[in-house]
Design goal:
- The chain is of the alpha+beta class.
- The strands form five sheets. It has a five-stranded antiparallel sheet with strand order 3-2-14-13-12, sandwiched between helices. Strands 1-9-10 form a three-stranded antiparallel sheet, with no helix packed on it.
- The chain has eleven helices and 14 strands.
- Helix content is 33%, strand content 19%.
- It is globular and about 80 Å long.
Length: 364
């Protein structure tokens, strides 16, 4: 037990057989946001991460199904059983690896913007289907988007447009964007986590197209996706995540306080601004338009990640607010949730509302 009690107090306690007080550890967790995340997720499996973009403070980290740590020894046999398909002991926020679906279009867009000076010149006509030999990629739900600008292709999450974009990129463009975003690398997470993975060794156009829309073999965790969003919000700079606010002794004297520090610059300020503008369009006229008309503007991206067969897609949302001077970043993953816009976005909306209800001064 870590304690900064005086040696005399410790001696007296040891001689009397009594326990002496340990230090007090204060986390960065926001209990109201944590409760709301759990309520909003309901009975679904998934994860929610809420962080401050400019400090790295982790306000919420929810993994569900969870377990009662006070009953861990009692319930260990059931929790650790190979027959337990709920995987309660897995922290889905940091250890759950999922296909990113259309949220990966953030990185495909980054690769395209690096290769093309002016994305405003882009145009594409979506017929709802993109073909490569005997293989086909369709837009989600069988949609046909018609004529699109780049911003529209992003905001409407057009799979066929991004399939075409991916195959026209330089061979290493997607891999470079993924590497810069810390795929296949250590993450600044001071708790147990699994590395996100990106593999693009194949040159088959269909595989490349799948990769560009977040399918294929790419996997990432909700916490990692939130880190990417936070870096975009913070002008390209990723802050080290902070889980502890401070430690004090039994007399409430501060022993240690944890301050914000920059981990690494992932993107240039110009790249971060371009991605932010695309993410704003997703809310203004795209798949997350239910987040419009609030006292604050949101920038975000949805995803509906297909996996296996005969199963509903995983539903994603990642984004930050206020869009023009970000303070909070939120990532929501609902396993088998279907559409990100219909399932994950409403959960994020409730969390954004609660955050700015608690901190109205951060609206401006």
């Amino acid at each position: 037990l870590s304690s900064h009690e005086s040696w005399l107090t410790k001696l007296k306690s040891n001689l009397s057989g009594e326990k002496y007080a340990g230090d007090n550890v204060y986390t960065t967790a926001n209990i109201e946001l944590q409760k709301l995340a759990k309520k909003a997720l309901g009975n679904a499996k998934g994860a929610v991460v809420v962080t401050e973009t400019d400090t790295g403070r982790v306000l919420t980290m929810l993994s569900q199904p969870d377990y009662d740590p006070n009953q861990l020894e009692k319930n260990w046999a059931d929790l650790s059983s190979p027959n337990n398909l709920d995987a309660n002991l897995l922290n889905r926020a940091t250890q759950g690896l999922y296909p990113p679906g259309s949220t990966f279009k953030l990185l495909t867009s980054l690769a395209y913007l690096r290769q093309n000076q002016n994305f405003l010149d882009y145009s594409y006509v979506c017929t709802g289907e993109w073909l490569s030999g005997e293989h086909a990629i369709h837009c989600y739900g069988g949609q046909v988007h018609g004529a699109l600008t780049f911003a529209q292709a992003f905001s409407l999450s057009c799979n066929t447009a991004f399939s075409q974009i991916s195959t026209e990129l330089n061979p290493t463009a997607l891999a470079t964007a993924a590497k810069d975003s810390l795929f296949n690398a250590e993450l600044p997470i001071p708790i147990a986590y699994y590395r996100s993975s990106f593999a693009q060794e194949k040159t088959d156009p269909f595989f490349i197209a799948q990769t560009g829309i977040g399918q294929g073999e790419t996997l990432l965790s909700p916490f990692h996706l939130n880190l990417i969003s936070s870096a975009i919000a913070n002008g390209g700079h990723l802050m080290n995540p902070i889980f502890l606010d401070h430690v004090s002794d039994p007399k409430n004297r501060i022993i240690e306080r944890f301050f914000p520090t920059v981990y690494q610059q992932l993107f240039s300020p110009e790249e971060a601004e371009q991605l932010t503008q695309l993410m704003k369009e997703t809310i203004n006229s795209g798949t997350a338009s239910s987040l419009k008309n609030r006292p604050y503007a949101v920038a975000g991206k949805t995803g509906s990640a297909e996996f296996g067969t005969q199963k509903e897609s995983h539903a994603w949302f990642v984004g930050f607010a206020p869009a023009d001077h970000p303070k909070v970043s939120i990532c929501v993953l609902v396993e088998n949730g279907g559409s990100g816009g219909k399932t994950a976005v409403p959960i994020a909306g409730k969390l954004f509302d609660e955050y700015f209800k608690q901190y109205p001064e951060k609206l401006n």
